[in-house]
């Protein structure tokens, strides 16, 4: 792919505001142009997300159905076995996924038997030729290095929102804790997956500030998930209004322009979007979606695999193939 745009890490808030607040069609056109300079627009990476340990989390993230303190009625499940996880990963690969993300509802990784099991899962999924990603909460530099040695390709740790709005959403850890985990991941040579959620009650300025933090990191995250709040009954944010899809489009387009080479992932919220609404997200530069056998994204609904297949066919999209998966970081 050729690139007429350069990768910049010195975006100002004002520049981002100017991009974000453009008339929508101008913004989409600019993002679609950048997208085509850096990526094959007909290819969308299909990632499978599996909750390997569900619920019972001690954190207080206000949007999350897995926080133990909210009465959401989800079934708490202990860490899955390596064999079960690898079998699901194989089926995910067979149905077109090239990335497999394992999520555990933990505050942080502890150096115990569960972590050893996770390392074995990473190794097993890596061996079947998938990009392996984990999202396990906060990790230290040493833990990140061990995950890298086991074959971890990427680590997800979202910023969620802006630094200013963060305390309205989470109190059990700080924004700097999050940045520190991202730093540990980067130092270990693992590719970084970090994005956020819209619809938490934040302002446009908060969204712009979060994008500013991500796009001015010394190296852009290779992967930027953009999520719409999935309103889970029993959580403090359950009664917030549904996110307007055009807000997702605006966010995705701005992320695409600021971080041209990154994978921009249309993540939570698809279950409440029509095919037409998702199409606009692809046009605005999204080039990845999440699927799961259970048709749930962790504990919230996700479209059926079959509906995604039909959507790809209708739009002429192909699942992105990874020629050779290694756990080295793609350079920006
Ligand atoms: S988002 Fe993660 S850390 Fe926060 S409560 Fe949910 S599982 Fe725990």
UniProtKB/TrEMBL annotation:
Free-text cofactor note: Binds 1 [4Fe-4S] cluster. The cluster is coordinated with 3 cysteines and an exchangeable S-adenosyl-L-methionine.
Enzyme class: transferase
Presence of keyword Iron: yes
Chain residues that bind [2Fe-2S] cluster: 101, 133, 193, 265
Keyword Cell inner membrane in record: no
GO MF annotations, alphabetized: 2 iron, 2 sulfur cluster binding; 4 iron, 4 sulfur cluster binding; biotin synthase activity; iron ion binding
Positions that bind [4Fe-4S] cluster: 57, 61, 64
Residues of the Radical SAM core domain: 42-270
EC number: 2.8.1.6
Keywords annotated in UniProt: 2Fe-2S, 4Fe-4S, Biotin biosynthesis, Iron, Iron-sulfur, Metal-binding, S-adenosyl-L-methionine, Transferase
Family, as annotated: Belongs to the radical SAM superfamily. Biotin synthase family.
Name of the protein described by the UniProt record: Biotin synthase
Organism per entry: Pedobacter cryoconitis
């Amino acid at each position: 792919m050729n690139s007429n745009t350069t990768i910049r890490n010195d975006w100002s808030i004002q520049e981002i505001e100017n991009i974000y607040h453009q008339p929508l069609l101008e913004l989409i056109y600019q993002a679609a142009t950048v997208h085509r300079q850096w990526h094959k627009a007909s290819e969308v990476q299909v990632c499978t997300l599996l909750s390997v340990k569900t619920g019972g989390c001690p954190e207080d993230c206000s949007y999350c159905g897995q926080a133990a303190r909210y009465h959401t009625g989800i079934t708490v499940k202990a860490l899955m076995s390596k064999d079960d996880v690898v079998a699901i990963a194989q089926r995910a690969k067979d149905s077109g996924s090239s990335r497999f993300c394992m999520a555990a509802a933990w505050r942080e990784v502890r150096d115990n038997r569960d972590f050893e099991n996770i390392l074995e899962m990473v190794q097993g999924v890596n061996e079947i030729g998938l990009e392996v990603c984990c999202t396990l909460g906060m990790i230290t530099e040493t833990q990140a290095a061990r995950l890298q040695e086991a074959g971890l390709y990427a680590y997800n740790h979202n910023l969620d929102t802006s630094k200013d709005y963060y305390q309205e959403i989470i109190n059990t850890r700080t924004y700097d804790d999050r940045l520190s985990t991202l730093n540990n991941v980067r130092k270990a040579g693992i590719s970084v997956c970090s994005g956020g959620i819209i619809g938490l009650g934040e302002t446009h300025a908060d969204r712009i500030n979060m994008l500013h933090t991500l796009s001015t990191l010394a190296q852009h995250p290779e992967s930027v998930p953009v999520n719409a709040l999935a309103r889970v009954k029993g959580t403090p944010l359950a009664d917030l209004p549904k996110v307007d899809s055009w807000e997702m489009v605006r966010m995705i387009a701005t992320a695409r322009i600021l971080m041209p080479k990154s994978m921009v992932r249309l993540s939570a919220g698809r279950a409440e979007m029509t095919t037409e609404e998702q199409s606009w997200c692809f046009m605005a530069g999204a080039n990845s979606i999440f699927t799961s056998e259970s048709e749930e994204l962790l504990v919230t609904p996700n479209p059926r695999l079959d509906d995604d297949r039909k959507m790809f066919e209708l739009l002429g999209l192909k699942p992105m193939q990874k020629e050779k998966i290694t756990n080295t970081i793609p350079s920006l």
